[in-house]
Amino acid sequence: MKKVLITGAASGLGRALALRFAQHGADICIADINMEGAAETLGLVEQAGGRGWLYELDVRSEANWNALRDEVGQRWQGIDVVVNNAGVATGDRIDAGEWAWWEWVIDINLKGVALGCRTFTPMMKQQGHGAFLNVASLAGLMVAPSMASYNATKAAVVAISETMHFELQPYGIGVTALCPGFFRTNLNHGMKTSDPDMLKFVDKVFAASALDAADIADAGYQALQRNQLICNPHPVGRRAYFVKKYLPWLYRKHVLKMANALKQREDQRNAFKAGADQPLGR
């Protein structure tokens, strides 16, 4: 029976990944800061044919990670897969929003993944096998305006995963970076942004996606089995990345068009605000 640890497993993609592993009878550590949602995931895992247990984890805390490693050692005496899935979303221009939001997204999306990898790599080295599935994003492969902080963290997760992919192969350890584009999930519910139109845009593209969390989980699971470095599960995402690599002039034209549209929207908002701030005449 595979022993699998999944962070951020209380909902969304984390839950879908737990159910995907459960279909193969895995024993799953459902790690999350949201214990109510984690308990719901555990019930679904057991219904799907898997086993599991709960662990309250703040991925930002090295002490929490070390305690979880000790618990895994006592329960399982080893581990097969660590899925670093926990993540949050931000969306703002470089000069907008709060600096605290940068620290928040970096601590969870980047440092949380790095801590998970650092914590469990020695155990995998000692046992001579194992695998990491690090959830990044299409935003880690190509950028969109107004998402600097989020883009930066996801690009860093891709870089960490690529480094580890080669660094750990001699030890029998696989590493895959899962890089989905927009799909139907709840990532936007806690999104931090100062742009009143950002959440509307994200809700719209989430709703329009042909893929849901189960589709992304299945793609990530299959890529992990093949020790595939990058998993870009959306057909439109693969086409976009192809354009960036091989038709860079077209890619730049498209991104600049997006940036100009965002500027136009900001100018309209500022003009409306300036008009609203004018005192009423007699």
What does this 3D model show about the protein?
Strands 3-2-1-4-5-6-7 form a seven-stranded parallel β-sheet, sandwiched between helices. The chain is built from nine helices and seven strands. Strand 5, helix 5 and strand 6 form a beta-alpha-beta unit. It folds into two domains: 232 residues, Rossmann fold; 36 residues.
Keywords:
9 helices; 7-stranded parallel sheet; Rossmann fold
Could you name the ranges where pLDDT drops below 50 across 5 or more consecutive residues? none
The CATH class assignment of the largest domain is Alpha Beta
How many DSSP helices? 9
Mean pLDDT: 91
Helix content bin: 40-55%
Quaternary structure:
single chain
Shape: globular
Q: Provide the spatial order of strands within the biggest beta sheet.
A: 3-2-1-4-5-6-7
Describe how the helices and strands are arranged:
Elements lengths: L2 E5 L4 H11 L4 E6 L2 H13 L3 E6 L5 H15 L4 E4 L14 H29 L2 E6 L12 H20 L5 E6 L19 H11 L4 H13 L4 E2 L3 H12 L1 H30 L5
Helix pairs in contact: 1-2, 1-7, 3-4, 4-5, 8-9
Structure, briefly:
It contains 9 helices and 7 strands.
